[in-house]
Design goal:
alpha+beta; six-stranded antiparallel β-sheet; single chain; 5 helices
């Protein structure tokens, strides 16, 4: 499976198996409960969304993004990509944060450069089964086809 190396927005569904306390860069120390998480981002620079996803799929030696600190404790189980120059991560995070059972596990996570006032670009769902449903929400907001990435698709990118 290939994703063109252009700009885009992405959502990564993660699973944290056991409770863990993690230092997230300069943002602070946070407790992450077991369950499902959705990390929302965009990649507009060189290599676009393909390069960013490849980065997030690997455990980073030098942490650059907030997700790099959480990744050793979180397994990526699914992903979604919307190609193009529109940045959807803020609209996606606000919509997902309104879903029943959602929460903000770490204020400011992934949103340090956010200009739309998002509390975070990481949303927590104690009931991880909701991760299977979020593609519909993301697509409705993007108002375009988004590409779902299965674990097999993600393995090929890695």
């Amino acid at each position: 499976m290939s994703i063109e190396a252009g700009p885009g927005s992405y959502a990564l569904c993660l699973w944290v198996e056991t409770e863990v306390q993690v230092q997230i860069g300069k943002v602070g120390i946070f407790d992450f409960c077991p369950g499902g998480y959705v990390y929302l981002g965009s990649a507009q620079g060189p290599g676009g969304v393909t390069a960013r996803l490849r980065h997030h799929l690997r455990l980073a030696i030098n942490q650059r993004w907030h997700l790099d600190w959480l990744r050793p404790y979180a397994r990526i189980v699914q992903g979604y990509v919307a190609l193009g120059h529109d940045r959807f991560e803020c609209r996606w995070s606000k919509a997902l944060a309104q879903l029943p059972g959602s929460g903000i596990p770490a204020a400011g996570f992934g949103a340090s450069d956010c200009r739309m006032g998002c509390p975070a670009h990481l949303i927590y769902f104690a009931n991880g089964s909701v991760l299977e449903e979020i593609g519909f929400v993301l697509q409705a907001i993007a108002n375009q086809d988004i590409r779902a990435l299965s674990p097999a698709d993600l393995a090929i990118l890695n």
